[in-house]
Amino acid sequence: MPEHGGNLDAALQRFGGHARDWIDLSTGINRQPYPVGELSPTCWSALPSRSDIQSLHRAAQQAYGTDTSILATNGAQAAIQWLPHLASRGRARVLSPTYNEYAAVFSSAGWEVTETSEIEALAGADIAVLANPNNPDGKRYEPSQLLALLPHVGRLVVDESFADAVPHLSLAPKAGQPGLFILRSFGKFFGLAGLRLGFILGDEADIAALAGMAGPWPVSGAAVEIGSRALLDREWAEATSARLDRDSLRLDHEATRFSWTLVGGTPLFRLYETGDANLAQERLARAQIWSRVFPHQTGWLRLGLPGEETEWARLSAALTR
Q: Which domains does the chain have, with CATH numbers?
């Protein structure tokens, strides 16, 4: 299985302590989550109805500025697992470095997978995959650049898991064109990754095929109720985006104390060149702060943003001691 952030078990095994004592900054998950509030008892005791799921879809369409076909999924990961089965095996090209599940999933399904660092090299693929903004380096592409690529590939998958805080990058308003898929993650921006909620946008025929793979209850009743509420709370979203913008710059400032240089990032995570990422990770781990390193980029360290002020204080102390 590919390695991911959020692997706090590895930190506990190497450095000890209890999970509750650690600050897990190895993911790009908002550490000041959406306030869930009261939930109806039926979201736990009853199966989600078709009308409930349709309401969730409408909330997502409104939040993402689209009226195209959409499907709620058990996290964006569920949609990634289904994508190789929408077409006969062929050539999949992945713009890398990026989320490492794409190459693994397509390869396991028997596709010929090529990873490339040049967006132009995606042309000619039966399925082309990229993330915008990208994980882990935060690289961004203008929507017009991606639309220009669409006629040159069989299908284009654009992973917008980190686009909530940079909505001008989203292709969602242009969704519905044949061959274009857009993946959205709910849990990262709203800080509720454990809810396991995501969405895939596409044309009607492809979404219908994916819905058949998902079955009648693709998400839980709690995901339906919380997701519908949170996606329509634009006041919270706008305030959160503004805070994340400020805090990402604050994290960059903290990193300069240890002479790290910014490689890139998004308002939810930052990627730094540290010279020796394993050493930097161990330094933070001694203060029970977990981070993400990358085997093929030995200097890269990725950090999510701390949440409450106590977390910022611990990070600052770890970087300056």
A: 8-33+235-320 (3.90.1150.10), 42-232 (3.40.640.10)
